[in-house]
Write a structure and sequence with these properties.
The complex is a heterodimer of chains A (336) and B (382). Chain A contains eleven helices and 14 strands. The chains are: A alpha/beta (336), B alpha/beta (382). Chain A: It comes from Agromyces salentinus.
């Protein structure tokens, strides 16, 4: 085992993918000489050369669109979008081309493109630097969408995403980049948990709490705090947002009878809605209470001084836990 | 291929020059820069180009007729653009790769795409007509200009792979306003990508005249990207071929991208759903009819002493065969199986979609007819 930060684990995973397959190329703004604004690609240009780790002009459509052409030639491009809020100029190429070309070509043309996106808030950043756009992509057929939450998963999942013959939107919890964890750099990918499978990261019996990305740690902290209060929370790190491992969530809800979902993205037509609906369909007779969503507000991402009033935190999550348990909570007495 | 050192300094630095080798009346103009690139085009080769153009024009009229008969849902005609498409496509090598829009039927035909494969998309029976790797031609693109970036990326890879293959991006005058095309020009220039940007300026983007897209010749834009631009008579198959060969030669030598503006005209509607009488006049059409790409080659062949009647007869016979093949092909295109809607969304299993497919399979299983045509088992109005 090696102790690495989440960002360092991504760097190590990218290095292993570059070393293992000549067709893996990294494309992005500032990823070469600088090593990326978050240093995730630090040292990789020096090690693999300017044709494997490519500093591109400032054009997200250009980066993704040329990645499509490279994939046509058999390359496995790994694209870095510098910040979540910068992905929209590349949106057309992602949803109209990357997502659909395998379908449109009747399976003849593969799009094994990984699109890395640092996402989420909590770092006091300027506007467009703290967004959670994952639902747009989870809504798009043809894309896989994943979010890692710790160093060990980051190391394995980035390699799995690159090895996948499908395009993968790879969301990285940017405020967790510097958090350290134990990584097994010698383990075989073949033995690793598949990318599409969720993890039960804390066991519990009273409430199922589902999340992904940076909020996984917040959810674990909430579970710890609740335990002192006599409430046992099972925390599920979804890991894959398309497809979602609803079987793992459903199995948990059948035991707990209560479901809370939390994400930084806004509530309306978000992943929480999909999870709540799907679990209600599958587990209706097991539910003791209506599922509760604790999410970012349906607002543009607010200025840094206000972000703590936007992001779900431990207390808001526990307030949601109280709601599904029928205990006194902020909405007690308020009609639905 | 004729080697030449002059391309770097001559033709390609004068984007306003309108390059032409065959005038509309069929006179052969001499051009010291272009002539060496088509020195191999003797009477037989020119007759073959004439035949190509006659055949693809028939492909176009036949497909339009099939649309009118309800056999195709839609058809975007290429009529008028035969020289631009044949001249450029015949310059390509087998290992080159074409990234086209939806109107390059002649390019596809040159790349060996058969009649049924040309039609199945427009019948609504398939998402695409052919395997791109069998023909060196990508899935045609309907999003305007998006393929310019794909061609550029493919070309970047070709360079990194140390091949001398080149990509060609086909797009129209309207596409030059799209970000994707401009971004492709930036990337191609920055990475010296072996790509030819082949813009068919057919004067109209549905109802919008080219003047709405650009206040200056499109070829002149290339200069702003540090890319040589050339303006060629797109209705002159010989000039188009020479220019494309020069551009491909540059690409193969590692000299990077070239922008070609082929000035042509869309004689028909944008698609069979369009009515061009609402936005352009008969006099304009008549003017362009006088610049017909096929008639001028016939005139040149006649002037050079060839047996034009025989050339035209043979071309007509091949066109007749093509038309018959198309009519046979259309009836051979089977309706796709209902459950194939789920095929190829992903290359690897996807739990959610697999479940959706399973549920729809069960739903369809209620019906007497596996194709879902019969009434549901419990009747009703559905």
């Amino acid at each position: 085992m090696t102790t690495l930060t989440l960002g360092g684990a991504l760097n190590a995973g990218l290095r292993r993918s570059l070393a293992g397959d000549d067709k893996v190329v990294l494309l992005g703004e500032d990823i070469g000489t600088l090593g990326g604004v978050f240093r995730i690609t630090d040292g990789l240009k020096a090690e693999f050369g300017a044709h494997r780790v490519v500093d591109t002009p400032l054009s997200e459509a250009g980066i993704v669109g040329t990645a499509v052409g490279l994939a046509y030639r058999g390359y496995r491009p790994v694209v870095e979008i510098q910040f979540d809020g910068f992905i929209y100029p590349g949106f057309d190429q992602i949803v109209a081309q990357v997502a659909k070309l395998h379908y449109r070509s009747h399976g003849n043309v593969r799009m094994p493109i990984t699109i890395r996106v640092p996402f989420g808030g909590g770092i006091g950043a300027a506007e467009h630097h703290s967004e959670s756009p994952e639902a747009y992509f989870a809504h798009t057929a043809g894309l896989r969408v994943v979010a890692c939450s710790d160093a060990a998963d980051a190391y394995v999942m980035i390699q799995q995403a690159i090895a996948s013959d499908d395009p993968v939107l790879f969301f990285e919890p940017k405020r967790r980049y510097h958090v350290k964890g134990e990584v097994d750099e010698t383990a075989s990918l073949a033995d690793a948990k598949p990318m599409g499978v969720a993890s039960v990261v804390a066991s519990g019996t009273d409430v199922t709490l589902v999340t992904y990305g940076a909020l996984v740690q917040t959810a674990r902290d909430a579970a710890t705090a609740a335990r002192e209060d006599g409430v046992s929370i099972e925390v599920i790190d979804l890991r894959s947002l398309s497809p979602m491992d609803l079987s793992t969530v459903a199995a948990s809800v059948r035991r707990t009878g209560r479901l809370v979902i939390t994400h930084e993205a806004g509530q309306q037509v978000g992943l929480g809605a999909e999870i709540a609906a799907s679990i209600t369909e599958r587990c209706f007779e097991f539910l003791e209470a209506a599922p509760v969503r604790i999410t970012g507000h349906d607002i543009p991402y607010p200025p840094a001084k206000l972000e703590r009033h936007h992001l779900p935190d431990l207390d808001r999550i526990l307030d949601g836990v109280d709601r599904v348990l029928g205990r006194p909570n902020s909405l007690s007495g308020v009609e639905a | 291929m004729t080697p030449s050192d002059r391309h770097a300094t001559g033709l390609l630095t004068r984007p306003d020059e309108f390059v032409q080798l065959i005038t509309p009346t069929g006179e052969r103009r001499s051009d010291p820069e272009l002539d060496p690139w088509v020195a191999d085009i003797d009477t037989d080769a020119l007759s073959a180009l004439h035949r190509d153009m006659v055949v693809v024009r028939r492909l176009d009229t036949e497909a339009t007729a099939l649309q009118r008969q309800g056999q195709l849902g839609l058809w975007p005609p290429l009529s008028g653009q035969e020289a631009a498409q044949i001249g450029s496509a015949r310059a390509l090598r087998e290992d080159d790769f074409a990234f086209s829009s939806y109107r390059e039927h002649a390019v596809a035909w040159v790349r060996g795409v058969g009649p049924a494969d040309l039609l199945r998309v427009w019948r609504g029976a398939a998402a695409s007509g052919w395997n791109p790797y069998e023909h060196g031609m990508a899935v045609p693109q309907i999003i305007i200009g998006a393929q310019a970036l794909h061609a550029t990326g493919w070309a970047m890879g070709a360079r990194w792979d140390d091949t001398d293959a080149a990509a060609v991006a086909y797009f129209g005058d309207g596409a030059t306003s799209e970000g994707d095309v401009n971004e492709a020009l930036v990337f191609a220039a920055s990475f010296d990508a072996p790509v030819v940007f082949f813009c068919q300026n057919n004067q109209w983007a549905i109802s919008e005249p080219v003047g709405l897209q650009s206040r200056q010749p499109l070829a002149r834009r290339a200069d702003g990207f540090g890319i040589p631009g050339v303006r060629v008579d797109g209705n002159d198959v010989l000039a188009v071929m020479a220019t494309t060969r020069i551009a491909l030669d540059r690409a193969r030598r590692g000299e990077g991208p070239t922008f070609i503006e082929a000035v042509t005209y869309r004689m028909g509607p944008h698609t069979t759903a369009d009515d061009p009488k609402r936005y352009r006049g008969e006099d304009e059409l008549a003017e362009w009819r006088g610049r017909d790409p096929i008639a001028r080659v016939a005139a040149l062949l006649a002037a050079s002493g060839a047996d034009v009647a025989a050339v035209e007869r043979e071309a007509g016979e091949e066109a007749d065969r093509m038309a018959a093949d198309l009519r046979t092909a259309i009836t051979s295109i089977a309706d796709p199986e209902p459950l194939s809607v789920f095929d190829h969304v992903y290359a690897e299993p996807h739990a959610h979609l697999d479940r959706q497919r399973e549920h729809y399979t069960r739903y369809l299983g209620q019906f007497d007819d596996a194709a879902g045509a019969a009434a549901p088992a419990r009747g009703g109005s559905r």
